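Exam revision sheet. Question 4 asks you to relate a sequence to its structure. Input first:
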Amino acid sequence: MSVTAQSKWLVARYGIPLAVALALVGVLTFGGAYAAYTNPPTEQVSSTVYDQRIASETMTSAVVANDTDLYQDGATLENKPVYFYNETRNLTFRTVTDLPEGESVNVTQRLVLQHRATRDGETFWSSRRMLVTSEQQPTTEQLVTETTVDMRAVQQTVAERRSEIGAVGTFQTVVRLRATYETSDYSGTLNATAPIVLTDRAYWVEGSLAAGQTHEETTSREITQSPDLLRVGGLSLLGVVALGLAGVLGISSLRGFDLDTIETELARSRHDEWISRGDLPTNSEKQYISIDTLEDIVDIAIDSNKRVIYDRHYEAYGVVDDDIVYYYAEGNTEFEEWLGV
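Answer key, structure tokens:
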């Protein structure tokens, strides 16, 4: 089948609707290109307003008071896993809270010594002793407090309480660190607890007295990116092509096509194997029957097992069946003019 003939038939039959549809597609794609250019994509970008950490830690130290085989008199022991009453009776607790640089902070530090007696997990007696407290707005990046405790006296107090309680419950001595802080942007509390183990000869702080907290705040903002020029260009090109085709179809449709001629050409291309070139008989002895379309002529030829004769002189198609000539002539040629009689 001829592609050209088929295209002509489509234009002749549906040219105007196709032109309108393509024009609409062109307008829409141009609109899409304009929207893509004037409304580029955006991206949410996060940035940190502040990222600050506040941490507190309590450390221990003791000065050796007696010259012994273990330590030299006057030596300072720091953060030892064990201390002896005879050599290091007085224990110093040094609490340090690290503050964010350049930030105004109100800080309160407390160090508490607590004795507690429990039975089946419930406290039935407790005693609290404030070792040190400090509430300041330091101008440096650290708040430091120190206090010294007579650990032999603590051991004696614990021994007396244990003797009074006996086997009724469990006795425990702990040190509690509590630091509260407040800035213009945030506030919080740091807590840490460590048991104190007291024996007849030595004592120690079991575990770490340290805690920290990080404060962070982020903000997001929208950033407009560059237009996707590849997308804009593609849509624009599609719009140009669509409008161009719409124009061609519109002009071609307005010029007009002979639909009968085009359909004859299509039928000729579809049934070419049934058509032969030759001369149609034009004598008056034949009976001539006019057929409306070439398709019908081909059907007659197929049904009668004949060939379709195409007479180029008259531009006519015919099937000769004995004394009957079935014919189809292009255009509106009158029967007498076509026969020449």
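Marking note for examiners. The first helix runs from residue 3 to 38.
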